[in-house]
Amino acid sequence: MRVGEHKIIFTGSVGAGKTAAISCLSDIPVVGTDVAATDETLNKKDFTTVAMDYGYIQLEDGELIHLYGTPGQERFNFMWEILCQGGVGLVLLVDATSSDPVADCEFYLKAFGKFIEETGAVIGITRADIASNSIYEQVQDVVIEKGYPIAVLEIDARNNEDVNMLVHALMAVL
Amino acid sequence: MDVTAEIVKTVSEQQHNDIAPASIIEKMVAVIKEVMEQSDEIIAAIVTSSDGLPWAQILPDNFDDKRFSAMSSALLALSMTMAREAGRGGTKNLMIEAENGNIYVLQAGPTLLLTVFTKANKNIGLTLAPTRRASEQIAKIKKEYDAN
Amino acid sequence: MPLSYNDTSGEVALINADTDVGISYLEEENNDQVKIILAERAVSTAVLGFRSLERPVSVHDLVNALSTYCKHFSSRIDTASATATIASGSDGSASVSQTVGNNTPLLLHEFISVHRDKTLIKLECAPYHPLYINGISGTCATRASLAEIHIIAKETESRPVVTEIDAAEELNQATSNDMVSYPIGTIIWQIAMVGANGTILPNHSLDTAVKLKSLPRFPREYMRNHPEFLKLSGLILKQSMTIRQLQQATQLDIEVVTDFYNLVFSLGLSSIDKSADSAELYKKKNVERESLLSRLAKKLISAA
What we know:
The complex is a heterotrimer of chains A (174), B (148) and C (304).
Chain A: E1 7-12, H1 18-25, E2 34-36, E3 47-49, E4 53-58, E5 64-69, H2 77-84, E6 87-95, H3 101-111, H4 113-118, E7 121-126, H5 136-146, E8 151-155, H6 160-172
Parallel strand pairs in A: 1-5, 1-6, 6-7, 7-8
Antiparallel strand pairs in A: 2-3, 4-5
Chain B: H1 22-38, E1 42-49, E2 54-58, H2 65-85, E3 93-98, E4 101-107, E5 112-118, H3 124-147
Antiparallel strand pairs in B: 1-2, 1-5, 3-4, 4-5
Helix pairs in contact in B: 1-3
Chain C: E1 11-16, H1 20-27, E2 33-39, E3 50-54, H2 59-74, H3 104-117, E4 120-124, E5 131-134, E6 139-142, H4 146-154, E7 161-164, H5 167-174, E8 180-183, H6 184-194, E9 210-212, H7 220-225, H8 227-238, H9 243-250, H10 254-266, E10 270-272, H11 287-303
Parallel strand pairs in C: 1-2, 2-3
Antiparallel strand pairs in C: 4-5, 4-7, 5-6, 6-8, 9-10
């Protein structure tokens, strides 16, 4: 028996770790729509999500928290709108090793602005250990400037504990 | 994006794009052109990479090729996942039946998709069959290109 | 057990920690004794009452160490009156008692003031190494190890004494041998983590409303072990709340909430919201959502 959908959306640029993060949380194997990449995505990886990733967390009483991962490329932005419908919050993953992670962050905050205002968000900076500079402060500055109550954490998207903590931080602001 | 139901008579031919090699674009456009000539009902078509980037097309001006490419890729990928998980095997095509016409999305070889837009028609077979043949031809063009 | 501050007689032992005899003596527990350890490399003195000096030891340093202890023991009676001038200047608002409790809130208060007023001070809590705090550069220079700073914060009897110093002296001290310079933020974290046993910062009250500007950069370990801080952060990121309201909303111990309050305020991450109506009770929105989220939280914690 379900009273309305409970969805958490995962977004962020290509290779930020959305699929990995959902895999950590999901009680079922993640339903993915990965295909071979042909564009600049190839700089980071061979496959890319084109429609969505889907998984869920099952609570004690059987209630489900659905997890949806969006594709990262802007050309799939129609999926962002579709997937956000009925969502309770957003997890934005930012890859610290991308060419301009702060710009990425600003871009997604803007693209999902309306959704964030209505619900809430958390930002997970991934690959911070590999990146040459720390972008933590800069990302914090962007968040403060926008005035959103968004927590920023550095995480490893493949690590269960880290991803749990991230979702925890999201729920703290919902 | 405001897509009108009435398809514009004049359609635009493929312009050069950076992703697909120019040499085979022409050949693919020729295939699309032929299938549109074979069937009045087919009014537009586009060849897309599986990750949603446009290759060859004959589309009305008000169709956003990038957007439709991405949509086709998303739709087909999701369809393939569902069909596979439901034990229905590989996806032959995805078909959308809408008030003003249909849309088919098919694989054209392992890395390309063909999307075809039709006017309202009663006999789906009339448009699906040539579409399928066209997809096979597109697949062949790509395969020959890759082999060289 | 080393000498406690209630003893009126005892020994000061000088130990050469570079010899076998010295090392074994060091490891012996001797009551009624404070140890001054001389070693080729200064050892970190995590234990109350020990002091470490690096060889070769200058006479000057040795004299300082000895006289500090002697001064301390002789002034034991005066300890209570050495309570900082720090606690003065109350604006009359209701505040939790400051004479009970440890040094944490007093130290934090000093760091806040130094940063705000851009001053340079020497903060000394006998018999420990003093801290030279530079509010302009945002640094704190000291010979004290972080462990020693923890001890200073935990102290309940020896209160910090603050003296303003000039730029020349601060520079001189900061560049001396054995001085380590830390960013003020690091020291604030160390002190705040010690906790204040529920004592709030001077001049603050349980009814001061604050709003968080951004989340503290919690170290991973810390986040893992203190998920309640995430919850507290989340609440005051969205709206101004007082300690009382936070306690009500989360049902956490008031000490935990107070420590959190002290930490974020000291780090400059929260600001007082004078316009907030502190009498208004925190309203829980969407109770159903709350319970869903707390069930999810429970599952995530147990999965970790």
